[in-house]
Specification:
The protein is α+β, with helices and mostly antiparallel strands. The chain contains 5 helices and 4 strands. The chain has helices at residues 13-25, 39-44, 66-74, 81-89, 92-110; strands spanning 4-8, 31-35, 55-57, 63-65. It has a 4-stranded mixed sheet with strand order 2-1-3-4, with helices on one face. The longest helix is centred in the last third of the chain and has 19 residues, at 92-110. The radius of gyration is 14 Å and the shape is globular. The model has no long low-confidence stretch (mean pLDDT 93).
Length: 129
């Protein structure tokens, strides 16, 4: 099975909550997770660095960023189809404005962990170290 890889900020509490939310709603189990400091990223995608964005490496190894990455993941979940459709019809450039605003203030609002880590509740088979 082809997989999608979410590369997230392991220091960010909001990002960790997003990863857990995704993992619980991805019934096909085709989304895997790693963080910016993982050996997997350093070896396979050294161009990906920690920043104010989430990255998704799709099944074709294309790197998606910001709201494009989030939309891609949302489409892999079993959320309400109306919510999914609504999210998908909003133009990406509008979503990116909100994405960039939230990404800049996420540590102040949600907090920051002391070390880069995976959420404890994340299923280990879906983690790429």
């Amino acid at each position: 099975m082809k997989r999608n890889i979410v590369v997230f900020d392991g220091y960010c509490i909001m990002c960790s909550k997003y990863v857990l939310w995704l993992s619980k709603r991805n019934k096909t189990k085709n989304i895997y997770f790693t963080h910016f400091e993982s050996k997997y990223i350093k070896k396979n995608f050294p161009e990906i660095k920690l920043g104010n964005t989430v990255y998704v490496i799709d099944e074709n190894k294309k790197i998606l960023v910001r709201s494009t990455a989030v939309k891609h993941c949302i489409n892999q979940t079993d959320i309400n189809p109306i919510v999914r459709l609504t999210f998908n019809i909003i133009p990406t450039f509008i979503l990116d404005i909100f994405y960039q605003l939230i990404s800049k203030i996420r540590y102040n609002i949600f907090g920051k962990k002391q070390s880069c880590s995976y959420p404890n509740e994340l299923i280990s088979e879906r983690i790429l170290n």
